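ingest -> validate -> predict -> emit
validate: passed (alphabet ok, no gaps, 57 aa)
predict: started
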Amino acid sequence: MPPNAIETASMIKAAGTATIDPAAGDRWVAAGDCLFCADPLSSRGIVHALRSGILAA
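emit:
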């Protein structure tokens, strides 16, 4: 390791996918990140957020 390198601790975090249920109720609808939380490694979050927002409108 170079003498000026910064040593940091490794961290492991869960990166799962989650949804809410129900996704809609009386005069409300969940869309985007409120409805669906995608695994950041799957690269599906932005597409789903945009699509669900368009469908909710």
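DSSP finds one helix and four strands in the chain.
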